[in-house]
Structure formats: structure tokens, C-alpha cells
Specification:
The chain contains 15 helices and three strands. The chain is mostly helical. The protein binds coenzyme A.
């Protein structure tokens, strides 16, 4: 073989980097969590059931679910020094930057840092699933100069997330929307952020380091950051009658329409029908109706021209807007759900016990003549 010669699979497209039992993304438009079609979960189970399923690899019974919910609530409260640290962060920083730093800081606060047993890792996963939402709620409350709230025993984990974020008692309709949204965002095969988490875990580094890697990766607009860009676009379009001109203009300039396209799906993303249903049937605001109408038009135009479909982030942006979440908090909210998938994959990666370390094709020079610094 010629020196440096390798076969490059650009973007690792269709490369299977490991085996997994956690989720399956079927290009024809299906998504399975541990063998369950998401269509059989959304609207039928609550988010903590799915989080439990992902990290324990089986659905909980009633008692196990109650215990898990209680453990999550018990873990939600943040150490005071983390609240102080969030307070000290300049408000101009993107919430994802603050989240990334504070998840890293969680590692410093781990009470069992040297215990890498399976049981300790499950406890750590539960702690992360509980605390990522709390960090997000805390960043939001501090930005609004509002008091940081502690979780309340009378609320479930998901209700507490809403309560600690918004500061008002959680409403049933909103809690229903949040359960569905968090289930749909919980896992998705070897997506970029999950892969980043697994690469970090594959070096036998700790779970906090792996989740910090994942958060930095989710932030990008080609991945989880797309939702914020979707809402920027919807706001920028303004009135519904401007949709056609705006979108055709972007397509004419070969620009990407955020919230469209997918690396794996060749048909409609199976999460889209659920999200369309959520924003159409469970959100009752005039603004949501108007955003939905714009989204429908955009879908038609983009499909007509490019034969591509909306991905998770398109209607998820509308659902989060309906929950009164400001757009810069869309990706943090996504991270608050995806952390259950990330931690499940980190545990699976520890079990697989193999270093993820690809090679590369070197296309640089050989045999360059070295010149000492004083002669350069
Ligand atoms: N808007 C317009 N055209 C798009 C598009 C989009 N959002 N996404 C893909 N395409 C087009 C590409 O231009 C390309 O067309 P061509 O074959 O005529 O050149 C074709 O569809 C294939 O796209 P490609 O970029 O090869 O797909 P990919 O697998 O590398 O990228 C994404 C996948 C998700 C990164 C890409 O679709 C994208 O950037 N989407 C917008 C960001 C987004 O919503 N991200 C969230 C992902 S869940």
C-alpha cells in the first residue's frame, strides 16, 4: 500500500462504528428505543419511563418508576456553589456555553468520583438526567433576575422541570407536551453528540467528561442548534404571506433551510408526525397556529424543490415556543432530554470496552527539508 493510503468515508456516512442495543434509526422512517417503536411510547408513557428504559435497558414497573421519579427529584437540587457559578457568568454568554461548563463542574461535585462500578454509573446517570434540566432552569431564572427554585415533592420530575423553569405551577396540558417532546428527543442512534460522548467514554474517561463533550457537539447548528435557527427563520419571515418568497429566495441561493434534511432518514422523520400532532392538537395559542401555518407552507415548498423532509428540530422549535421557552434555550432543553440517551450510550460504551480511534488518510507532504529557526 502506498504510504498514507487509506479509504476515507467522508463524514463517516453509513459507517457502523459499534454495536448498540439502545436505539435504531431505520432510514425508511422508523425509530426504536430498546426495541420499542417510538409510536408505541409517545403519549402512552411519561418521560422518566423512557429515561429508565434507556439506562436500565428495560421498562420499569410501577414501583420502580415511582422510585426512579423520587430519585430524580431528590437529585434535582444543585450545590450552592454551582448556583453561585451560574450567577457569576456574563448574561451575554449563550446558555449552551454555561450548561457545558456547569455539567463539567458537576464532575467536581460527584460524591463518589472514584467509584466506576456499574451501580455507581447508574446513579451518576440518574444524577445527570436530573441535574441537566435543573442547570438549564437555573440559568434561565438567573437571567431573568428571578429566584432560583427548589424542586417540590408534590410535583413529578417533569412537572418540577416546568415549575423550576417558569416559576408557576405546572399545567397539565404543558406537562403533556413536555413529556412527549422529551421522549422524542431522548435518543437517536449514533448521532454526532452521542458519538462524541462515546468517544470520550471509550478512553475510560468519566461520565461527566463524556456528557460535556456531547453538549459541545449538540450546540452546533447542523445538530441540536438547528431548532434555534428554525425559530430565527420563522420570526424573520414575519407574515405567512412572505413564506414563499423567503424560502424560495434561500433555495435559489443554495442556502440550507434549517430543520430540514437528515443524514439517515430517506423518508419522513418518524418524530415529525408526533410533533405536528403536538403543536396542532395540544398547543392552543394564536402564535402557535400562525407558526404552524408557516411551517406547513415551508414543508411544501422545500419538499417540492429538494425532496427533503423536516427533521426533529423543525416542529420541536414550535412546540418549545408554545411552552414559552425562548429560542436560545431550545438547545439546552434538547440537552435536558438527550442526556438520558447520552448516559445510556456511555454505559454501553464502558461495557463494550474498546477504544474508538479511527485512522485518517494523510495527504500532506513527506521528506520536507528541515530548516533551523534562525534560517527560516
Ligand atoms: N436545506 C436545503 N437543502 C438541503 C438541506 C437543507 N436543510 N439538507 C440537505 N440538503 C440537500 C443538500 O444540499 C444536498 O443536495 P445536493 O445533493 O443537491 O447537493 C442533499 O440535500 C443531501 O444533503 P447533505 O448535505 O449531503 O446531507 P448530510 O447528510 O451531509 O447533512 C444535515 C445532513 C442534517 C447536516 C443537513 O441536512 C443539514 O444541514 N440540515 C440543516 C440543519 C439541521 O436541520 N440540522 C438538524 C439535523 S437533525
Amino acid at each position: 500500500m502506498k504510504k498514507g493510503e487509506r479509504v476515507v468515508v467522508r463524514g463517516l456516512r453509513d459507517v457502523a462504528a459499534a454495536e448498540t442495543k439502545i436505539s435504531f434509526v431505520e432510514p425508511k422512517g422508523e425509530l426504536y428505543y430498546l426495541g420499542y417503536n417510538i409510536d408505541d411510547l409517545v403519549g402512552k408513557v411519561v418521560y422518566p419511563e423512557v429515561a429508565y428504559l434507556l439506562i436500565h435497558k428495560r421498562l420499569p414497573n410501577q414501583q420502580e418508576l415511582e422510585e426512579f421519579n423520587a430519585n430524580l427529584i431528590a437529585e434535582m437540587k444543585l450545590p450552592d456553589r454551582m448556583i453561585d457559578s451560574i450567577r457569576a457568568t456574563p448574561k451575554r454568554c449563550h446558555p449552551m456555553d454555561v450548561l457545558r461548563t456547569e455539567v463539567s463542574r458537576l464532575g467536581e461535585c460527584d460524591p463518589e468520583n472514584n467509584d466506576l462500578s456499574e451501580a455507581a454509573n447508574l446513579r451518576r446517570a440518574t444524577r445527570l438526567i436530573a441535574r441537566v434540566p435543573t442547570i438549564v432552569a437555573t440559568i434561565y431564572r438567573i437571567r431573568l433576575d428571578k429566584p432560583v427554585l427548589a424542586p417540590r415533592e408534590e410535583y413529578s420530575f417533569t412537572e418540577n422541570f416546568l415549575y423550576m423553569f417558569k416559576g408557576s405551577p405546572p399545567e397539565k396540558a404543558e406537562t403533556d407536551v413536555l413529556h412527549r417532546l422529551m421522549i422524542l428527543q431522548a435518543d437517536h442512534g449514533f448521532n454526532a453528540s452521542t458519538f462524541a460522548a462515546r468517544v470520550t467514554a471509550s478512553t475510560n474517561s468519566d461520565m461527566y467528561s463524556a456528557i460535556t463533550s456531547a453538549i459541545g457537539t449538540l450546540k452546533g447548528p447542523l445538530h441540536g442548534g438547528a431548532g434555534e435557527k428554525v425559530m430565527e427563520m420563522l420570526d424573520d419571515i414575519g407574515l405567512e404571506e412572505h413564506v414563499e418568497e423567503y424560502i424560495k429566495g434561500l433555495l435559489d441561493e443554495n442556502k440550507k433551510i434549517m430543520g430540514f434534511g437528515h443524514r439517515v432518514y430517506k423518508a419522513e422523520d418518524p418524530r415529525t408526525k408526533h410533533l405536528r400532532g403536538i403543536v396542532r392538537n395540544l398547543c392552543f395559542r394564536d402564535r402557535t397556529t400562525s407558526l404552524c401555518n408557516k411551517c406547513n407552507k415551508i414543508e411544501e415548498i422545500v419538499h417540492d424543490r429538494k425532496k427533503i423532509y423536516p427533521n426533529l428540530d423543525f416542529y420541536a422549535a414550535v412546540a418549545m415556543d408554545a411552552l414559552d421557552v425562548p429560542k436560545e434555550f431550545f438547545t439546552p432543553l434538547f440537552a435536558s432530554s438527550r442526556v438520558s440517551g447520552w448516559t445510556a450510550h456511555v454505559i454501553e460504551q464502558y461495557e463494550d470496552a474498546v477504544l474508538l480511534r479511527p485512522s485518517s488518510k494523510y495527504i500532506g507532504a513527506f521528506d520536507r527539508k528541515f530548516v533551523p529557526i534562525e534560517k527560516r
